User: Fold this.
Amino acid sequence: MFKHFIRLQWKSFFRSSSFGKGIALKILMIFFGLYMLAALVITGSGIYFVLQELFPDQSPMWTLNQYLVYWILMEMFFRYFLQKLPVMDIKPFLIVPIHKSKITHYILGRSGVSIYNLFAIFFFLPFAIVLLFKGYAALNVLLWLLSIFAIVLCINYVNFLINKSDKALFVIIGLILTFYALDYFQIVPIKEFFGPTFHGLYAYPLAFLAPIGLAFIVYWLNYRFLRNRLFLDDSLKTKKQEAKSSDLAWTRRFGDIAPFLQLDLKLIWRNKRTKAQVFISLLFVFYGLIFYTQDIYANMMPMFAFLGIFMTGIFLANFGQFIPAWDSAYYSMMMSQNIPLRKYLDSKAGLISVSVVVMFLLTIPYVYFGWEALAINFGSALYNLGVNIPVILYFGSFNKKRIELDKSPFGNMQGTSGTQFLIMLPVLGAPILIFTIFHFIFSVEVAVAVLSIMGIVGFMFKNKLLDAITEQYRKKKYGMIAGFKEKNS
Amino acid sequence: MITADNLTKAYGSQLVLNINHLEIPKGQSFGLVGNNGAGKTTFFSLLLDLIQPSSGKIVNNEVEVSASEDWKPFTSSFIDESFLIGYLTPEEYFYFIGDLRGRNRADVDALLAQFEDFFHGEILGQKKYLRDLSKGNQKKAGIVASFIGNPEVVILDEPFANLDPTTQIRLKAIIKELAASEGVTVLVSSHDLIHVTEVCERIVVLNKGEVVKDIQTSAETLKELETFFGG
Assistant:
């Protein structure tokens, strides 16, 4: 029976619409996947030496074990968003003669080999191998590794149990923050408290039975929970959010574009993928920390320009590149309705402008790393406002790929085509190039001034530019309508 | 009101629509019937300028639809669920359409009040997004949205499909009333011969993209259509 299931799984993977995508995209995704795996393997094998460097007076194994509690919590946090039990796939099996217990085991078992669990293997396995080479006791290391995999499975199944309530998420976030705070302010040494527990899995080989036992218990709980709920109106029901009507009355003050602005805000807030985009964009504020803190980059001004354009323009890039594909599901309605296309674009431009300003305000603290950081971010923000917004809206008119809004945001390449890669060149490349040239010939001040002036000039001609873009959208209308209608593209 | 001249639409070498001349006078309730692939939706899409004609043109109230957008204010339509915005509640959707058609909330509310019967308590105040409504209820919302803003031309593609019997009967009454009292031109397509003959003053049969019958509805029309489709 399981053979059947596995064969179906195989087919569903290779016949899935995302698999039949353009060859270029496929290659890119494979590269991305390989890159991720390589990154994990390299980190996994390198972490031993890094930890040795950072904490020379204790064994890297000991240090790593101290941090495992955070790893578990973080993983729970991410999985909460990313991983759902694929219950919908089994609907067709309910009416064929297969025991429900088998179906339950199948979906639970299948989630056991999910990609999220593989991540851990690719990280911990190289680490364990390094341990062996460094002369750690082989049996202990192997059983510790086994325990880690059991913990991964525990996380996997606990996630499905708690995934039903938002409260669990807040508990996880709360735990992470409290633990970190307790640690940081040295009130309770959380790391030292949990460290020995995990290290015990290594030190006392028989202890591996505990996590494995735990994994079985959680699996069994999941099984019991799901087995009794394999009904269309129970766990197989797609969750329907209760709709909260909101009239967003404050948008009225924006006049003509208000209806579209309301629509865009609802679009972003009520759909997973767009919502994730907002959070991701906000997270990218911290991107600068990676570079500003390192001495190698301290005098690399072009790198600063990249950061400036990138951080203040992350939402512009993320959200803007798919305009108007966000509205693809109902684009033919938009085109047959009494819609002034210009207002529609104005609203999108307004929204992105706000994001640029907000991102700039959030990056102000980087002034700590020198006034150049602030100045460059300011110039970049102006450039993004004046030049990049029209540019990205213009390229949007080449979008012809449909986006299904309610699909999961993670690894979702829907709507991606060659256009997206083309867009990034002028949006990201051009300003950095301009900056670098002027910085090279003159100085940082001149380079910032040039970016700012270009932004201001672009802003002055905003109306003219948007008019031209509107015309472009009008011309491309039929192609867009036809393209957006094609599902599975 | 609506005139199509030498209108053709071809995909590659395949001609999917070929209408020599078709005129729909103002205030007429016009029914379009035909089997799958007869060109009904193609005709409506051309009329809404969602696709480009291969040749010829459609003129809607003296506006050539592919040349100007001035037909939009007085034309409204519901073709399929892709005309709905899934992440809005029905109310929000109605208000949004109202905004586009220059109607404020009070106007929209007044209009919606007339359709309370039609909604059957399943649309308004349900705390559900349109994407979570059943197909039939989505259709109801879409159809009523196309009545917002006193349009002079209303285009409904397969409005009876997916509706429950009570709603079908109510919808027929609504369409009749619309066409009769307010001088609105209503264009309806359907697979259901009984419904169209009941609602429409005039029925045009499309077959493989060509107009094969153009009938003023009478007592014999249903029989005639049944013979035609029955072969």
Residues 2-227 of chain A form one domain. The mean pLDDT of chain A is 83. Chain A has 20 helices and no strands. Chain A has two domains: 2-227, 249-485.
